[in-house]
Model the fold of this input.
Amino acid sequence: MIDTLRLTAEEAAALLERRELSAAELHAAYLDAIRARDGELHAYLRTVDEPDADGVPVALKDLICTRGVETTAGSRILAGYVPPYDATVATRCRAARLSFLGKTNMDEFAMGSSTENSGFGPTRNPWDPDRVPGGSSGGSAAAVAAGLAPWALGSDTGGSIKQPAALCGVVGLRPTYGTVSRYGIVAFASSLDQIGPIAKTVRDCALLYRIIAGRDPCDTTTVDLPESVELPETEHLRGLRVGVPRELNEAEGIEPGVTEAVNRAVELARELGADVSECELPRSVEYGLSCYYLIAPAEASSNLARYDGVRYGLRSETNGDTRAMYERTRHDGFGDEPKRRIMLGAYALSAGYYEAFYGQAQKVRTLIRREHDALFERFDVLLSPTSPTVAFRLGERTENPLAMYLSDVLTIPSNLAGLPGLSIPCGLSEGLPVGLQLIGRQFAENALFRVGHALERALAFGYVPSRLRDGGAV
Amino acid sequence: MSWQPVIGLEIHIHLKTRTKMFCRCELAYGLDANTRTCPICLGHPGTLPVPNARAIEWTIKLGLALGCEIADRAIFHRKNYFYPDLPKGYQISQYDEPLCRHGRLLVPGPEVDAEVGIVRAHLEEDAAKNVHVGGAAGRIHGAGRTLVDFNRGGTPLVEIVTRPDLHSADEARRFLQLLRQTVVELGISDAEMEKGSLRFDVNVSVRPAGSDELRTRTELKNMNSFAFAARGIQREVDRQIGIYEAGGEVEQETLHFDPDHELAPPLRSKEEAQDYRYFPEPDLVPLAPPRQLVERLRKEIPEPPGARIRRFESQYGLRFYDAEVLNGSVALAELYERVVSAGVDAKAASNVLMNEFARTGVEPGAVDAVELAKVIEARARIPRDRFNEALAGSGDPGFDAERYLGDGLVVETSELEPLVERVLAANEKEVAAYRAGKRGLLGFFVGQVMRETGGNADARVVNELLRTKLDA
Done:
């Protein structure tokens, strides 16, 4: 019997290695778990029934192109689209002999923080099915939390890995921009999109990151890692300088229960030997969200222009007029959120407004990067909550886009700076997981893994959702 | 009042790299539709561009040949608009930080050089090709369906924009020819209009001579040859002058040149205020051409055709027009220089190459100049037919001038006299007619004698002999 709720990817790999288990049995166990629990959760959009490799299975967010397997990015405009090629991260997973379990649900084109914007219905939080799993990688986070995948890949633009990992009580890494190839990732905002792992443990995250990271000739924005990925071992934090940015920890809207759990984790870091002190990121937090909501929609407005009904995906038939066909197809195929962002973005780029909006946002972005750089002269890692709140209820924010956007207020600043961030669960508030965000300097994933691992051990967070603890094995 | 035309050009040139600009599909013309495509040039979700390094080098090379400054940092921008031939919904182009700018090209003219400012030369990807089926003549209006052939989509395309420094249709034509020759000689493009690997638009306005104002301009599109362009520009210049002289105003519009009518009927009146929402392409890092690369490329630039024209004038004492014709291709120019250096008189070499040789259609690059020089030197001694035959064969492998000069000519009067006698005896009627005044028949007799000798007689000697006999 395989307890997919508790089995880590590292343990699964060891079982395969020792031939205590076959890859087919492992794959089948996850499919059984999916059959048992995904009817309620809807973490997957589709599964792959036969393992095509003999390693540990992995779930892929549905914006990762997989040759021969439908890829929709959660959008009806791509319903039925079967890519003729593999994303580089998919190729790397295959090369590492990971078998594909399936494609996970997401907010349409990764635009959202709750997975409610999926064109194919929302995903629910394994800790409480009345609540959202976060987003946009909600399907991947929920799948890992509910034992429907040992690990998964998500994508993070404004917080789409870190935030759902936090809300589902799992570990998520948003890597340094440029360390993981974006080739084959359905684009949302190119200068911000990054693929990263979601797993139960920091070590699993490091293992999966090791598989996917590195320069890719197909993505000219990628670079070679300056140092190889190290699996964290140490359980102390001696010699480590930890900064606690006031603005990220005292932002309006942070729930008291979240603050409490994060403060305990910070205290723990001190006990583990870290040199902890307060610091400031005044402009990054004040302007981050506005800056992000100019840059990301601007890029999205252009990235989503290719969905025109001419070559693939949905085409709404009209009287033969090309322009009418575009309009009808895009009207029918896109949900509200992509439409909203396309409009915002097109406006920010339009003649006469470019300098005031997009141009200005780029300047602010530079300023945010510098502000972070300055802090990293004094600190190795920054700590804050990942999300201001625990998982909220389905429907609670769907009518209020601004409230939804605020879910990412704490993850966005470092994303704009291109920095890596790790979210680990650090406790419960109202019975729901709270995420701790660790931000590192560029390419400092190893430092994040080290701190995350030490805290993870010390916190001993039980990552199996309480309501599933009794019936884990299938 | 006298008017000065003010003309600017925007030229697009396909680079003949092996592969496309942002993917590794091979470039090919005339293949079945959609046989040179991949997920990248079809704009599939998730695909990313990887720039073609050779295309970048070639653009720099062209920039250097046009006297441009090469940017230390250049960036690609996205130009956003919807059209079925544009798979991503944007074209990757360059905007305010192009690879090359502030250049100038000297265009030699009969009197002075025209100095044409080059505003910029930048690199972009070409669109695919819409094929309208079911309608008239492939035009969009009335077409039943539109099909898209993506083979061309993603071809590296250089856009060159000139300042409005050209002041006559002829000057514009000359500029285009020189530019075309420049890119061909750099080896970076076929620049063939029929293949669409060279396309251009023309901006035209006029102003009172002596003024430096810039009046409303019109844009001429769809020019399919340099000659048509010159005619189209002239017509447009005349039209605008006509409007001003009648007290009217020229409207800013785009005109579609129709070679069948040679008119320029409005394609669409008024510029559509299109907002392309340019922004830096986030999928590509800025280009930073290393100085060493630029210097290496600079050394690879051959002598520009314009400079060569002026050198031919001074070095060989040629008239401008002759120098221009001889420089119509680098191969012809080189052949000329080699023939002259083999000892042929510069003027004679120029005459033969531009006339008799040009008519043979022989590829100048295939010719052994030393052998050709022998033929040209002997031109006065050998029969016309044989001379032309020699020129026509001069491009053949192993061409040997001696074969045509070998036997020499029958010049001895003693040898020719019997032949002349025989010809006159056989054509008594013609002899009578000649003597009665039909002097034009002389040519007839010459022809007869030449035939008898198999073309080996010296025509001047034959002429003299015939006259002596006939006029006796």
User: Anything to note?
Assistant: Chain A has one domain: 9-283+365-471. Residues 9-283+365-471 of chain A form a domain with the Amidase signature (AS) enzymes fold (CATH 3.90.1300.10). The CA atoms of residues 20 and 99 of chain A lie 18 Å apart.
